[in-house]
C-alpha cells in the first residue's frame, strides 16, 4: 500500500445540497421491488444458469411476491432469448407479474429484444448507456452531447417498435449507467432528454433507474445525489425513481436505505446480494430491515431456509454464514453472556404469549423472531469454548427437556466449558448430554444403589437400602419424615460423611408409559462444601435416592 494514497486516489466530490431533507425522514412503506437475479445476478456467475435453473429461480421469486422481475438480456444469447420465450409461450408468468428485459442503446439489440417480448402481458424494456466521465473518456471516446444522443436515439428506437407490442402493457426504464460516478447535472440532463422523447404521463410513468454501479463514495453522498436529482427533475410526477446499488465499499444496504429516505420509489437488487464484484444489493436484508421496524415489506420470506437452498442450487453460490437474516449463524450465540440473555429473553417472550395474544418483540441480540423466517429456536444457541452456563443449559433444555436449576447451571457450566475447551471445537446438544450424564447420572462409585424400599407409619418413613460401597454389598436402614430424609439418616448411621440436603427439584423427562423422572439434589457437607447430584428413574422416589448417591460420589 502507498504511504501517501492521495498521490494516486482522490475523494469523490460531495453534492452541494446544504438543505438536504432525507436525514430527517423515516421510511414508512416498502418500495416497489424488482429482482435482477436472473440478469445482473446471473451474468456474474462463473457458470450462468441454464433454462431449467432460471425457471426454478423465477418460480421462487414469484412465490416470494416479486411483481417485477428482470428476466435477462434476451438479445445477448440464444439461451436468454429462449428462456423468455419459454416463460411467455408456456404461460409461466402470472398476470400480476411484469417481466423486465435489459438492452443497450443499439438498434439491432433493441430489435431482438422487442421480438423476444411478443405475447407478454406486462413488460418493461430497460435501456441503458454509460454516462460517467471515465466511461465517456476511456471506453467510448465521446463527449457529453454524443453520449446524450446515444440515449435519446435508443429511446426513439424503442418507441418506434412499441406498436409491435400492442397487446402488452409496456413500460420504459432508462438507466444512466454509472450514475453514482456521473456529474448530477449531466445525469439529469440526459434523463430529461430521454423523457422528452418518450413523453411519459402521470398515468404512464417512465422509470429512471439511478445505479450506484460502482460505489465511489459514502452512502450519504449517494442519497444526496438521488435527492438532488429528484428535486431538479421537471416532471417528477411522470417518473418513478429507482435505485440499483452495488456493494464495492460494503455499504450497498446503507446506500439503498438512504436513497429511500431521499424519496426513491423503487429498488432493484438480488437475493443475498449476488452480483458483479462484491455484489448487488441484498433485497432480503433491506426487506427484513423494514419488517423488524414493523413495516411489512410486501415480500414473503417465511421459509428463508428453503429459499436459500433454491438459490444455492441454481446459482452454485453459497450464502455466507454471517449473511444478515439468512446465514447459518445469524441466529446463533456463542458468547456465554449473550446466550444467557437470549435464553432469558425467549423465556420472557413465551410467558408473555401465554398471558395474552401478542406483544412487542424485544429480545436481547435477536432483531426478529427466527420463527418468522422459518428458523428454529434450537439454532439460536450453540456451544463452544467461549460459551457459558446459559448456552449449555439452553441446549440441554431445548433438545432433551433437562431443566437445570440455576445453582446446578453454575456448577456444570465450567465443567462443560473445560471439556469443550479441551476438544477445541463446537459441541452438539448430544455431546453436552453425554458430558452431563457422565458427570452426574452415571457416577456410581464408590456408592451404587442395588435396592430400596420404604414403609410409612404415623408420618414416619422407614427405609431399607441395599448398596454397593467400593464394590462391596452393604445394607443400611434409617428413618425420617420422608424417603430422602430416611435415606440420609441411614447413610450417616453407617458412617458416611455427615451432610444435609440443601436443594431439591425434579420433573418428568418424557410423557406416556414408562416416562422417566429426573431429580436434582444439592447436598452440603458438615464442613461446608456442597455438591449436586442427579438421578434418573421411572420411579421418582428411586430417582431422588440415586441423586443423593450421585452427589456423594462427587464429593
Overview of the structural elements:
By secondary structure, this protein is an alpha/beta fold. It folds into 3 domains: 27-315, TIM Barrel (Alpha-Beta Barrel); 336-440, Helix Hairpins, CATH 1.10.287.1400; 447-553, Double Stranded RNA Binding Domain (2-Layer Sandwich), CATH 3.30.160.270. Helices cover 39% and strands 20% of the residues. The protein has 17 helices and 14 strands. The chain has helices at 37-43, 51-64, 78-89, 107-116, 133-140, 144-161, 184-198, 219-232, 252-261, 283-292, 304-315, 336-355, 389-400, 406-423, 429-441, 483-493, 540-553; strands at residues 32-35, 68-72, 98-104, 122-130, 169-177, 206-212, 239-245, 266-269, 447-457, 460-469, 472-480, 499-508, 517-525, 530-537. An 8-stranded parallel barrel has the order 1-2-3-4-5-6-7-8, surrounded by 7 helices. A 3-stranded antiparallel beta sheet has the order 9-10-11. Strand 3 (98-104), helix 4 (107-116) and strand 4 (122-130) form a beta-alpha-beta unit. The longest helix is centred in the middle third of the chain and has 20 residues, at 336-355. The two termini are 61 Å apart. The relative contact order is 0.07. The model has no long low-confidence stretch (mean pLDDT 94).
Provide keyphrases for this structure.
single chain, 555 residues, alpha/beta, TIM Barrel, Helix Hairpins, Double Stranded RNA Binding Domain, 3 domains, eight-stranded parallel β-barrel, three-stranded antiparallel sheet, 17 helices, 39% helix
Amino acid at each position: 500500500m502507498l504511504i501517501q494514497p492521495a498521490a494516486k486516489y482522490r475523494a469523490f466530490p460531495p453534492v452541494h445540497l446544504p438543505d438536504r431533507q432525507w436525514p430527517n425522514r423515516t421510511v414508512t412503506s416498502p418500495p416497489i421491488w424488482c429482482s435482477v437475479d436472473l440478469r445482473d445476478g446471473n451474468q456474474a456467475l462463473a457458470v450462468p444458469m441454464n433454462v431449467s435453473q432460471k425457471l426454478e429461480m423465477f418460480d421462487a421469486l414469484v412465490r416470494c411476491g416479486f411483481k417485477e422481475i428482470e428476466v435477462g438480456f434476451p438479445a445477448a444469447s440464444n439461451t436468454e432469448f429462449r428462456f423468455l420465450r419459454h416463460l411467455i409461450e408456456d404461460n409461466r408468468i402470472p398476470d400480476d407479474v411484469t417481466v423486465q428485459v435489459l438492452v443497450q442503446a443499439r438498434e439491432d439489440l433493441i430489435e431482438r429484444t422487442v421480438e423476444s417480448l411478443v405475447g407478454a402481458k406486462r413488460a418493461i424494456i430497460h435501456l441503458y448507456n454509460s454516462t460517467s466521465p471515465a466511461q465517456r473518456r476511456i471506453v467510448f471516446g465521446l463527449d457529453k452531447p454524443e453520449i446524450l444522443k446515444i440515449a435519446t436515439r435508443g429511446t426513439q428506437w424503442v418507441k418506434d417498435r412499441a406498436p409491435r407490442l400492442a397487446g402488452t402493457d409496456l413500460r420504459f426504464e432508462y438507466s444512466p449507467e454509472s450514475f453514482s460516478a456521473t456529474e448530477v447535472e449531466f445525469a439529469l440532463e440526459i434523463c430529461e432528454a430521454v423523457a422528452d422523447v418518450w413523453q411519459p404521463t402521470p398515468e404512464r410513468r417512465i422509470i429512471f433507474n439511478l445505479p450506484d454501479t460502482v460505489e465511489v463514495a459514502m452512502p450519504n453522498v449517494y442519497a444526496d445525489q438521488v435527492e438532488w436529482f429528484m428535486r431538479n427533475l421537471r416532471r417528477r410526477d411522470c417518473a418513478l425513481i429507482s435505485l440499483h446499488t452495488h456493494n464495492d465499499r460494503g455499504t450497498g444496504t446503507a446506500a439503498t436505505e438512504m436513497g429511500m429516505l431521499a424519496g426513491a420509489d423503487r429498488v432493484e437488487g438480488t437475493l443475498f446480494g449476488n452480483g458483479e464484484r462484491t455484489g448487488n444489493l441484498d433485497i432480503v436484508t433491506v426487506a427484513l430491515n423494514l419488517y423488524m421496524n414493523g413495516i411489512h415489506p410486501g415480500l414473503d420470506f417465511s421459509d428463508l431456509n428453503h429459499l436459500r437452498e433454491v438459490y444455492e442450487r441454481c446459482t452454485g453460490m453459497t450464502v455466507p454464514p454471517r449473511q444478515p437474516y439468512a446465514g447459518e449463524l445469524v441466529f446463533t450465540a456463542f458468547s456465554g453472556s449473550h446466550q444467557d440473555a437470549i435464553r432469558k429473553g425467549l423465556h420472557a417472550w413465551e410467558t408473555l404469549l401465554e398471558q395474552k395474544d401478542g406483544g412487542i418483540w424485544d429480545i436481547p441480540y435477536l432483531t426478529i423472531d427466527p420463527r418468522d423466517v422459518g428458523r428454529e429456536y434450537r439454532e439460536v444457541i450453540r456451544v463452544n469454548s467461549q460459551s457459558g452456563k446459559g448456552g449449555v443449559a439452553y441446549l440441554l433444555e431445548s433438545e432433551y427437556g433437562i431443566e437445570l436449576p440455576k445453582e446446578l447451571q453454575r456448577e456444570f457450566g465450567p465443567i462443560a466449558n473445560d471439556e469443550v475447551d479441551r476438544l477445541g471445537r463446537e459441541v452438539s446438544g448430544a455431546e453436552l448430554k453425554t458430558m452431563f450424564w457422565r458427570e452426574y447420572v452415571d457416577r456410581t462409585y464408590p456408592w451404587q444403589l442395588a435396592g430400596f424400599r420404604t414403609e410409612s407409619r404415623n408420618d414416619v418413613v422407614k427405609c431399607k437400602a441395599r448398596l454397593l460401597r467400593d464394590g462391596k454389598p452393604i445394607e443400611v436402614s434409617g428413618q425420617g419424615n420422608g424417603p430422602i430424609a430416611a435415606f440420609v439418616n441411614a447413610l450417616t448411621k453407617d458412617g458416611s460423611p455427615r451432610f444435609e440436603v440443601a436443594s431439591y427439584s425434579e420433573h418428568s423427562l418424557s410423557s406416556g408409559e414408562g416416562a422417566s423422572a429426573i431429580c436434582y439434589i444439592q447436598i452440603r457437607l458438615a464442613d461446608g462444601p456442597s455438591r449436586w447430584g442427579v438421578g434418573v428413574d421411572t420411579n421418582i422416589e428411586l430417582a431422588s435416592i440415586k441423586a443423593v448417591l450421585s452427589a456423594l460420589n462427587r464429593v
